[in-house]
Amino acid sequence: MTAPPTGGTRAADAPISWPVWRLALVMAFGAFMSQLDTSVVNVGLGTIATDLGAGLGDAQWVANGYLIALGLSLPACGWLVRRYGAGPVWLASLGGFTLTSGLCALAGDIGWLVAFRVAQGLTAGLLLPAGQTVLGQAVGAHRLGRVMATLGIAVTLAPALGPALGGVLLHLGPWPWLFLVNLPLGALALYLGVRHVPRDRPAVRPASLDWPGLLLVAAGVPLLIYGLSAWGARGVSSGGSGSGFGGALGPVAAGALALAAFARHARRTAHPVLDLRLFANPAYAAATATAALTGAAMFGATLLFPLYFQLGRDTGVTGTGLALIPLGLGTALLLPVSGRLVDRFGGGIVSVYGGLAAVATTVPFALLRMDMNPAVVEGLLLLRGMALALAVTPAGIAAYQAVAPEQLADATTQVNILQRLGGALGGTVFAVVLTARLPLGVEGAFHTAFGWLTAASVLSLAGAVWLTAAQRRGRRAEGG
Length: 480
What we know:
Blueprint: H1 10-13, H2 18-43, H3 45-51, H4 56-73, H5 77-84, H6 86-106, H7 110-139, H8 144-172, H9 177-180, H10 182-196, H11 211-237, H12 245-267, H13 282-312, H14 317-323, H15 325-345, H16 347-367, H17 374-391, H18 393-401, H19 408-437, H20 442-479
Helix pairs in contact: 2-7, 2-8, 2-10, 3-4, 4-7, 4-11, 5-6, 5-19, 6-7, 6-10, 7-8, 7-19, 8-14, 8-15, 8-18, 11-12, 11-19, 13-18, 13-19, 13-20, 15-16, 15-17, 15-18, 16-17, 16-18, 16-20, 19-20
């Protein structure tokens, strides 16, 4: 399969029924909860450490444990969907996420809180790829852009709103409210899910679970994410001296070796836990590479922009959260348009124009003074958010459109893994570059860091050009 043909087709323009839109909204509800939880809880780590009598380093594992657990559960999602069906997996993970949110609120010490956060992360890691699979199976490839954009709105708005919501919750009550807020949301999502999410089980039972492959991927992905994140964090604490890499080298090397061992294992296994044969499809390979590159540029920037406001513009935590809302708002506003464009013209060409806009809206931060007018800053963030709607989401959609329906569970899992790895790498690079330059001056440090972000955006643009070429070759091959 390839992307939709260039120009409007009857399939791409066909209306989408209300039951499908309703299903997309339910899936978006679950994605919003899991994405919101990360940024809301991170705001309260200092308060949690104080109230539970723990050090800030111990409290940091409340965040790290969650992220590592996300990487642990992701590799199993494809097999679980093939075994039990996408709808049942989504409902079970949502129920588990809601239950563990309540357990986190009841934790009496930091050890129990970290343990419950790990359990919460294991369930949250399944929500987004299982939800994407549900939607892909419901709508079909040529209308996938419009409904996937609904999920994209939830995924981009949640991190933007999270810091501000976390600050409000901590102002109104104690830290358990950071988790209790998930209970009414989860109950409502479960009610809607039980009513509207299809629970069809696959007609053909999959092969037995590839345990050796699962263990290799489930070890490699979290180790890489943790090692890269630790490198960035220790680079900050060491003042950018570079000494922070020593403690992160072991996890990074072990994670890379585990994933290399899995790639070797997958070639020799009839039914690996992740089907790497999908990468033989040029359009899929280009789309996933572009998704990883855009993940590095987008998620890495989520580290850079808060520091820009806090260190460069002397803005508090709550003020920073409010100042970043235009970034998520711009993405949310344009995603419906982005999805329709993907259905009509294909994800590659849409990502190209989005990549150009992302570069254009990043360059000013690398050149202009730190004390530029706040209205100019907010306007640039709004425009950059719109650019990301055209650059990031279309690449993932193009990957899903490039595979057959029975391969969708593997595709959603692989794209999510690569985006998380790309995001961890981007965050690390920008953190190390920034802290290495800070002793020489704040403004110069941020100019350099945003220069690197511009370079990452250019790499994402190159990936989008590659994807466009691969899609065009695929259409010519089908036509010829």
